[in-house]
Amino acid sequence: MQQIINFIIRYKNFLLYIFLLIISLGFTVQSHSYHQSSFFNSSNWIAGNIYQTSFSVTSYFDLNKENKQLIEENNRLRDQLFNRENENPTELDSIQMNYTIASGKVIKNSYANLRNYITINKGEKNSIKIDMGVITAKGILGIVENTSNNFANVQSILNQNSNINAKIKNTNHFGSLVWNAKSYNIVQLIDIPRLVPLTIGDTIVTGAMSSIFPEDIPIGTIKKFDLDTSKSFYTIDVALFNDMTNIKNVYIVNNINREEIQQLEAETNDQ
Amino acid sequence: MISNYFFINIIRFILLVLVQVLVFNKLNFFGFINPMVYILFLYWYPIKQNRATFIGLSFLLGLSIDFFSDTMAINAASTITIAYLRPTIMRFIFGVNYEFQSFKLGNATRVQQITFLALLIIVHHMVFFTLEIFSFANFLLILKKILSIGLATLVLCLLFSSLFSVKKE
Predict the structure, then answer these.
(1) Most buried in the list A184, A270, B38, B126, measured by CB within 10 Å?
(2) Which of B72, B123, B132, B148 to mutate to test the interface with A (most CBs of A within 10 A)?
(3) Does the predicted interface ipTM exceed a cut of 0.90?
(4) Within-domain flag for B169
(5) Domains of chain A
(6) pTM of the entire structure?
(7) Does A97 touch chain B (CB under 8 A)?
């Protein structure tokens, strides 16, 4: 007994070190798997409020540019509205809507790590929930991964855990959108079969297989494509429409039917 | 005297976390270089203090950085590693001198100070990027990040330490 106590006293620093190391490795390994620990992210109260304060100071510096971007977006939407071929617009009835949109602002952005997360200034109070899609005027941005009362943590598409259903525009060939962490303006589309005709410059959009994003949200254009090692699928480099380094205004997409879809899928899987 | 040290370190702790999170994590020099200046806390921390407290404080420091930057607990793991290894590194660089009561970091030569800081940074970055990337298939990526970000951290830490140098008695 005496010896055990002596041992502990003698190596107490080492034991403390090992103990803390195991704790931190535990947190790390746990979040390498699917979901991040809900505690260790910047949507918590302290971090969120500090980022919010810093954002409210710095956001004045590029108001001009932001305004210009929003006006451009409005122009584009008005163009679409006035040139609609279908002259019989169905009434915008809330029962017929499939998606609702909320707006938010990015208060923390990162793109230099391997697993990048973005924090936005909307949270549970604004009925933001886990697994909602986040897009910008130009294209997709990521998926909500954690929420707190006032903030939400978004897993960016520049994240090694990210895996989003995407397809080539105007076709039904779909694959998965992943990121190889090499460059912050290029992501990879994998699992597109070899027989699909591809051209550099083709547009990639979100697919219909996901219950998170609506179909046909723009992602980027094909920059380069190669066959993977099995020689039967393409690995496509996609240049993003979004400038991931400079994002301010985002839209959070809520699929109203998502719960129903998931429930149905779960029931089918159970059988 | 003790309370003086105590307050200086608390203020240093908070300021370094804020500077790291609000300024240096957004730097993205060349697209990926974000220097980690908060290592200076471990460089400046008084030598004669209780080691267990020091490791505990470093854990808190790393954890608060993790809190803000969504890096799980990688910063905490790498910070406690250098906190634990600091006496070994110091003995390696300053020899047995450093165990004497009169030893002060300010009295050591410039070369010794820089080597000490550089070793802290290298060990920290090695642990950090190995944990972040988590696969040896990306060995070159790890190496590239350690070297480039380590260099940036070293330069900035040297600038900071000469800017806020502890006044010489």
Answers:
(1) B38
(2) B72
(3) no
(4) no
(5) 39-80+97-255 (2.40.10.340)
(6) 0.80
(7) no
